[in-house]
Amino acid sequence: MCELVAMSSRCPTQLNFSLDALAAHSGDTSTTRDGWGVAFYRGQDAALFREPVAASDSPLVRFLQAQGLSTTLAISHIRHATRGALNLSNTQPFLRELGGRVHVFAHNGHLPGIDSAADMAFDRYRPVGTTDSEHAFCALLERLLGLWKTASAPPTIQERRQVIAGFAADLCKLGPANFLYADSELLFAHGNRRIQAATGRIEPPGLFLMSCRCPDPQQPVHADGVTVAPGFQEMVMLASVPLTSDGQTWRPLDEGELVTVSAGRVINGTVP
What we know:
This protein has 272 residues and is an alpha+beta fold. 18% of the residues lie in helices and 35% in strands.
């Protein structure tokens, strides 16, 4: 299955998506060789880099390894294609404008029947590619449209969570629904099920979370595939599989758990 990674930090920091371990996941013996992408937020906009090639073979990945952007929020995805051709339009993360800001989405799992699911319909937002993941993103934006279109200020956190929680519950009816979604201010992560390396079965957990506070301001934080420059004060990372084995604590998300993250801190855990 695909690999998801996200980072949220309190202060802007240089984030080097070396993708060392993640790219290794897409090496010659891996199934995740069908594309990769990463979105770095800057304010309400995001810089998006993506290619429909194996991350392990990409010069652009090596460039980002050395020249990561300064950001407080980033989402990354490495693809194992289960639907859709190997081209740019089917490569995640996906990006759309809503409410005058950029929204980013990445999903892991196969969603058979999404094309005919009444609760996954869309109108204004239409897929560019042919993946079930982009279809799901368009359906989510369609649900969020009323909140962002009519509000003179951004919707409350609870209003956003309520819509996203309902969407996640409906998505789980179709198949594994691990996803990362950001609206430039908040990061939402939903953990469901994925193929487990130990058993080969599709079961929880679908995502893991690591939270760091007040590390040594002179030392960077290293994880397999991600390096965060020294000086930040709080950080949350999410990944399909734990990215460190050096004592850092990665908590598996419960099946159906929706986490809301803001500026390097989990501000609301499980779905109310």
